[in-house]
Design brief:
about 45% helix, disordered N terminus, alpha/beta, 2 domains, 7-stranded mixed β-sheet, D-Maltodextrin-Binding Protein, domain 2
């Protein structure tokens, strides 16, 4: 998705241009006509409803909500990666849906600031839902002016999955916990014809893994500064880039990762063509049972001198939230009914037990039918945690960072060129 600066003027300019040129071609642009003025119709815009993890559970929840609220109709609009652009276009026409279910990333970072969505803090408190939300999630969804951008809902753990059977076959007795051990394991795996670490070096999965490895030598504050400003010149950042280049040029990653995507990564791991992947919980839920039963989850191996004590994972509480639009405030009673229902213990537990989703909402339910998701939930203090940079990267830098990631995963590109590519993404 191409990004543009989301000032109020930038939003208007981008949306007007899109409406004038490509609007008829957008499959989701029925959103423009779908935000009905009928006070008895709640319009919800979501990425759930097709093949996205949790879609079946969500659609069943909508059916139950309709049954419990027979006088209230719910219209469900579905988009994929273009949801943010479609919503912005609808907002320009004042035809936006009432509730939007999307993550905090890229374009959406500026929505509350430019009035595309509203601060929901008072609603959260008035409806008595604050105690249902994990404190970390509330902190992540709150902007620098104290506004709560959306009601937190989906979260994710992002550990590293290790296929023990492939490691055993290659003579790797223990899960690697250091860079040297990972390099030795990669050589043994390659000798057996198995790719070591698979990664989508040409999309967001590679971007996240690169960020994770760079943070080997960065504190959280230092990482926040680097990804907010594009300044990768600090000693720790340079050490992290050096560590990444060492791993890459030692053959740790699958062949030509710079051309692979998240789908390629999942296919390689799930078909046992590769032994290791860094995977968020929704991807772990998709690992076939025959592979999952001999897979362990852990952290990314550390280098000497790392600022962390244990191999690291990523965690995020900003995967999906419920945003309220200006139109939604006109139907706030209907919105309240919907959000109270979605926050209900039985609704939340269904996403955990049926879909293997991690939640930013408190629940005693466990993902028992998704063993790798459940194992990731139990990691706790066995691993360290690094910063997921999504909420700090300026929207204009997101797509260029993907390009810089592909450059970085290209074997032979020097550490200096990797740093230059990362910093250029911010310009």
């Amino acid at each position: 998705m191409r990004s543009s600066p989301l000032t109020r003027r930038g939003l208007l300019a981008a949306g007007c241009g899109l409406a004038a040129t490509t609007l008829p071609a957008l499959s989701g642009c029925s959103a423009l006509a779908a935000a009905e003025d009928d006070p008895d119709t709640l319009v919800v815009h979501s990425q759930l409803g097709t093949t996205a993890p949790g879609s079946a559970t969500y659609l069943r929840a909508l059916d139950r909500f309709r049954e419990e609220n027979p006088g209230l109709k719910v219209k469900n609009l579905v988009n994929g990666d273009d949801l943010a652009q479609v919503y912005e276009t609808a907002r320009l026409a004042r035809k936006e849906p009432d509730v939007v279910m999307v993550n905090l990333y890229d374009k959406t970072l500026a929505w509350t600031d430019v009035g595309a969505t509203v601060d929901v803090k008072d609603y959260l408190d008035d409806w008595g839902l604050r105690e249902r939300v994990m404190p970390q999630a509330l902190a992540a969804w709150t902007d620098g002016k104290g506004r709560l951008r959306a009601f937190p809902y989906f979260a994710t753990n992002w550990p590293v999955a290790y296929n023990r059977a492939l490691l055993d076959r290659a003579g790797v007795a223990e899960i690697p916990t250091t860079g040297d051990e990972l390099i030795r394991a990669a050589r043994k795996l390659r000798a057996k014809g198995t790719a070591p670490v698979t990664v989508g070096g040409n999309d967001w999965t590679g971007q996240k893994l690169l960020a994770q490895i760079i943070q080997t030598f960065l504190t959280e504050d230092e990482a926040r500064h680097a990804y907010a400003t594009g300044d990768f010149g600090a000693r720790g950042a340079r050490q992290g880039i050096d560590y990444f280049v060492e791993l890459r040029d030692s053959g740790v990653f699958t062949d030509k990762p710079q051309g692979l995507t998240s789908d390629s990564m999942m296919t390689q791991f799930n078909t046992q063509s590769a032994a290791i992947e860094s995977a968020m919980s929704s991807a772990l839920a998709e690992v076939p049972e025959r592979v999952a039963r001999h897979t362990d989850v852990g952290g990314w191996p550390l280098a000497d001198g790392a600022v962390h004590d244990k191999p690291t994972i990523l965690r995020s509480y900003t995967l999906i939230g419920f945003w309220i639009s200006p139109n939604g405030t006109k139907k706030i009673d209907a919105v309240e009914k919907f959000l109270r229902f979605m926050y209900r213990a039985d609704t939340v537990s269904a996403f955990i037990t049926e879909s293997g989703r991690d939640m930013a909402v408190r629940s005693d339910a466990l993902s028992t039918d998704f063993p790798l998701v459940a194992a990731a939930q139990r990691l706790g203090s066995d691993v360290g945690q690094v910063l997921l940079p999504d909420v700090y990267v300026p929207p204009t830098a997101n797509q260029p960072l993907i390009t810089a990631t592909s450059t970085s995963f290209t074997r032979g590109v020097s550490a200096a060129r990797v740093r230059a590519a990362l910093e250029a993404a911010y310009r």
